[in-house]
Amino acid sequence: MKLLWLQSGGCGGCTLSWLGSEHGSLFRTLADEGIELLWHPSLSEVCLDEALTLIEDCATGRQPVDLLCLEGALLRGPQGTGGYHRFGGRQPMIDWVARIAVRARHVIGIGSCAGFGGITAAGINPADACGLQYDGEVGGGLLGPNYRDAHGLPVINVSGCPPHPDWITETLAMLAQGRLTAADLDDYGRPRFFADQLVHHGCPRNEYYEFKASAQKPSDQGCLMENLGCKGTQAHADCNQRLWNGEGSCLRGGYACIRCTEPGFEEPGHPFEQTPKVAGIPIGLPADMPKAWFVALAALSKSATPQRVKENATADHLMRAPSVKKGRK
């Protein structure tokens, strides 16, 4: 499988995340899956002229491309010309991507910028940034909502800001082995092996969430949903089950989940570390949970909260350990 990796409007953080994989040498990992990296702007040694020749060959079909990976949002401005991002100062990147996408066996959007526009498309979006097949939550993007590759798949969006390195590697491996089908993708084209989970699953603060024992300030140990903007109950990812570097996640580091695998996460309409409420009820409720049920559950949970959990929730360290019960009761 021939892999071509292009970068457009973004920070390069997805590549940095990928390089942090625990599986050892990235090139060896790819070789083990039968994947050859044709070119990567940060990892390849060839000069600009050689890279332009290779990319032109990919665009014309002289060089077959099995896996086209794009990192970063597509910059369509000004006025649809793509002139804000000319690769090597020459042809607009959006033209290269469009030409190669129709020839590649599969197209993969690496990160939320490539998937949906992401941070690059935030605010007034003067560069007219978008994703490969989505413009925020709306189908479209550069390739349009009806794009399908030679195997009938849409753009495969390995979203996240940045995505976990294993999400990238496992997606490429599944494609190389012919094991990724349309049924393995969710409604936004994300591989379901990570997108069918919620960040809430495996969260180390789940006991506080169950009792609605909430943190009041960033250093507290309690649940971050009620006051500090956590959206882990709405974010599709397995971050707290597939830990970063074997031991970390945003929530394990004390930071609220900002829902970075979802389209539109970059503009929640409020500060990231605040939870907007109406009549004291958070606007962003857990996925699939009716408001009335949440209100009833929260009231019941708070009335049953153990004193130990209350004390620990608003402290920056463990104040009271769980009691030790003797016997079988």
Question: SSE layout and pairings?
Answer:
Elements: E1 2-7, H1 13-19, H2 26-32, E2 36-39, H3 48-60, E3 67-71, E4 74-75, H4 93-101, E5 106-110, H5 112-116, E6 129-130, E7 134-135, E8 138-139, E9 156-158, H6 165-176, H7 192-195, H8 206-210, H9 225-228, E10 277-278, E11 281-282, H10 291-303, H11 307-313
Parallel strand pairs: 1-2, 1-3, 3-5, 5-9
Antiparallel strand pairs: 4-6, 7-8, 10-11
Helix pairs in contact: 1-6, 3-4
What do these coordinates show?
This protein is of the alpha/beta class. The chain folds into 2 domains: 2-194, NADH:ubiquinone oxidoreductase-like, 20kDa subunit (Rossmann fold, 3-Layer(aba) Sandwich); 197-318, Irregular (Cytochrome-c3 Hydrogenase, Chain A, domain 2). 26% of the residues lie in helices and 11% in strands. The protein is built from 11 helices and 11 strands. It has helices at 13-19, 26-32, 48-60, 93-101, 112-116, 165-176, 192-195, 206-210, 225-228, 291-303, 307-313; strands at 2-7, 36-39, 67-71, 74-75, 106-110, 129-130, 134-135, 138-139, 156-158, 277-278, 281-282. The strands form 4 sheets. The chain has a 5-stranded parallel beta sheet with strand order 2-1-3-5-9, sandwiched between helices. Strands 4-6 form a two-stranded antiparallel ribbon. A hairpin with a 2-residue loop joins strand 10 and strand 11 (281-282). Helix 3 crosses helix 4. The radius of gyration is 22 Å and the shape is elongated. The termini are far apart. The mean pLDDT is 94.
